[in-house]
Amino acid sequence: VVGSGPAGLAAAQQLARMGHAVTVYEKMDKPGGLLRYGIPDFKLGKKVVDRRLDQLVREGVRFVLSTRVTGTDGETLEPGVHDDAESTISIAALQAKYDAVVLALGAEVPRDLKLPGRELSGIHFALDFLIAQNRVNSGGGVNPVQVRGKHVVVIGGGETASDCIGTANRLGAASVTQLDYHAELPLKADLMREWPDWRHIKRTSTSQEEGCTRLFATNTVSFEGKNAVESVKTVQVKWGPGRKITPIEGTESEVKADVVLIAMGYAHPSHAIVKALGLATDKRGSIAAPVDGPEAWRTAAEGIFAAGDGRFGQSLVVNALAEGRECAAAVDKWLRDKQSEAAPLWRE
Fold this sequence. Notes:
Helix content is 30%, strand content 21%. With 348 residues, the protein is α/β, with parallel strands linked by helices.
């Protein structure tokens, strides 16, 4: 199993319980993926993660840490993808060594905001901040993204943005402003119109409740400053048909910013292994693998399966867990079918 996030851990545990020998490869120094390094401690205590990992080890799952599975020699990872690897092993070597491989790569490549001033210091991807703080909380190092006493701007409206807000508040930021280009939704929904679908209402996370200025229908125009970021220029937008946004003339503004955290979500998995295997991808860049039929969870490469955010796109932990378990069942069936086909004639 390549990757030890929720999908990889779920697949590993299920396969071990089905009687297979399972090895998990992880490029970070500790297993857990976003469970350990992406989600702040105030939302998910790492004792919960460690308890499950201890269970997996007792069930026979083997972990190989600080080891990156590569596609080719000398490859580089996309900007924003974190890597603790001290050694590497090629995907070709895994194919030769193991009967099946599950790619649980996650959607690690962050969406960037390539605007004027992006090169200024003080502008960071969200996980640069969150991963470093989770390391600090576990007793390692200093967070290079210092926010105490500073004005922090978080760009994005999802869970990662909320995590940045809560973490910045706990570290003593002078102010936190969230820029969300989506329009502000009503507090209540017309249930006669929307039930049983998801209610499109304004939701406020606990992190936002702790202190945050939320600016809706606000698009980022540029980052301003000399050597370091000092402010963010914005403009209000109007949403139209086809999710088209139009800037509203005369609504230009500027938000003070000493630190900017880009939390606009994640595009797709790192493509190093994908390219080496010649795997098909969808329009978002996620690994193509069906979830139904005889080819369920299989990629275009023989014996290579995919599950989790790397296949589905960024989603919830519970979805990744479900994908890992279902993928494990498909791997088990595929291996047993192969074993049955290879059975010697005298057994008949």
